[in-house]
Design a protein that fits this description.
Structural class: alpha/beta
Radius of gyration: 21 Å
Distance between the termini: 38 Å
Number of strands: 15
Bound molecules: pyridoxal-5'-phosphate
Largest sheet: 7 strands, mixed
Number of helices: 13
Shape: globular
Helix content: 25-40%
Length: about 400
């Protein structure tokens, strides 16, 4: 796979490239899009050829006989994460935001509190609020550019109204791969406050060497009756537009409740997404993923080196994900001025940190899942946009 090859995405109904002007005021003509989390790469050949055969066959009826899909998930989780899953515990949703929304609907009532460790993936709070539940922000501690959990403070915040905790593991943004001790802390916290846990592990395969993702399900068997696991092929294999996520629930009672809600909402699998996911979780998919991770690793090294050379800017050392989280507080600038320089001077569309919740205000998120030449160009533009403080 030649990850350096520029693929034209403008004019293809890409949210990332065709909405950058609308959302960030950055023209796609000469702007660089580094916001939403999809990459500018083709998926592996095994995925593309499955999609090609599907299109060649040319009959687009309802999907059925999902044994291969379930087997592929079980194989991948065992092989890569040492996690044995019962194939009957898997549900296919229309992505993980959809999975999260169903969980909120199933396991909480309007007015209940849903705990987020902020800053965190901003769509969680949108979904919680839209469902009439309350977002309870437990702020992570930024310890010298590394997020850490703060259970003592969080314990004091709990009122008894909180019913669910959404864990983002590995963490977006900030890229932490939580350790077993931290995850055990989450399990204990959930038990102390009687919270169900939805563990969103969508970034589970985008982990850099030296770090080890541990599925929440393997941390503490005593939380299985309060745990919903969510994984997907969408981020790792760049097929997010196919909207397919896997929700895995070991506990029978939680499963029955989830299943009833799914059927109440009329959710059934998206055939194209399920075909692609089945093809991705394969030995060929694993080889491609290895190559992708080495490419992303070099992007990460280059980007951090370039950003950290700008006085006042600091890029968090990512342990996972392709979402660089840059702290602009050292510039002493007001964030409106930072945005002006990023969007107008550097012509880069990057996510604003405030939407990720408490603690994100002074950050901007840059998607480095793109061709190396674009990373180099983005660094040069940012260095120039902030050159007066050098
Ligand atoms: C933590 C997390 N969960 C969910 C999603 C989106 O998932 P989906 O496209 O499957 O709804 C993202 C996308 O960036 C994410 O970072």
């Amino acid at each position: 796979m030649n990850f350096d090859e520029i693929i034209e995405r403008r004019g293809t109904h890409s949210a990332k490239w065709d909405m950058m002007d609308t959302f960030y005021g950055v023209s796609p003509k000469d702007g660089i899009s580094m916001w939403v989390a999809d990459m500018d790469f083709h998926p592996p050949k095994c995925v593309q050829s499955t999609i090609d055969s599907f299109a060649q066959h040319g009959v687009y009826g309802y999907y059925g006989d999902d044994a291969a899909y379930r087997d592929a998930i079980c194989w991948w989780m065992q092989e890569r994460h040492g996690w044995s899953i019962d194939k009957d515990h898997i549900y296919s949703t229309h992505g993980l935001v959809n999975g999260t929304a169903i969980c909120i609907d199933t396991y909480t009532k309007p007015g209940d509190g849903v705990v987020l460790m902020t800053p965190v993936y901003y769509v969680f709070s949108k979904v919680i609020e839209s469902a009439g539940r309350k977002v309870v922000e437990c702020e992570l501690v930024n310890n010298n550019g590394r997020y850490e959990m703060d259970f003592d403070t969080w314990d004091m915040q709990m009122t008894g109204n909180e019913k669910l905790l959404i864990l983002c593991s590995p963490h977006n943004p900030g890229g932490r791969v939580w350790t077993r001790k931290e995850l055990q802390g989450v399990a204990d916290f959930a038990k102390r406050h009687d919270l169900k846990i939805v563990s969103d592990e969508i970034h589970h395969d985008l982990v850099y060497p030296g770090h080890n993702h541990i599925p929440m399900s393997l941390v503490d068997g005593s939380i299985n009756d309060r745990l919903v696991m969510m994984t997907a092929t969408s981020k790792s294999f760049n097929i997010a537009g196919l909207h397919t996520g896997n929700v895995i629930i070991e506990d029978e009672k939680l499963r029955a409740q989830f299943e009833q809600r799914m059927s109440g909402l009329g959710i059934s699998p998206n055939s194209l997404g399920v075909f692609a996911a089945t093809a991705a979780y394969s030995p060929d998919g694993a080889v491609w993923l290895g190559e992708l991770l080495s490419y992303l690793g070099e992007n990460r090294r280059l980007f951090d080196e370039g950003i950290n050379a700008i006085p006042g800017l600091s890029s968090m050392a990512l342990e996972s994900t392709y979402l660089a989280w840059v702290d602009f507080s050292g510039t002493g600038m007001d964030m409106g001025e930072v945005d002006n320089r990023v969007a107008k001077t550097a012509r880069i569309a990057a996510n604003k940190g405030g939407v990720f919740g408490k603690g994100g205000e002074n950050f901007r998120r840059f998607n480095i899942g793109t061709q190396r030449s674009r990373i180099v160009e983005a660094i040069e533009r940012l260095q120039s946009a902030f050159s007066d403080i050098q």
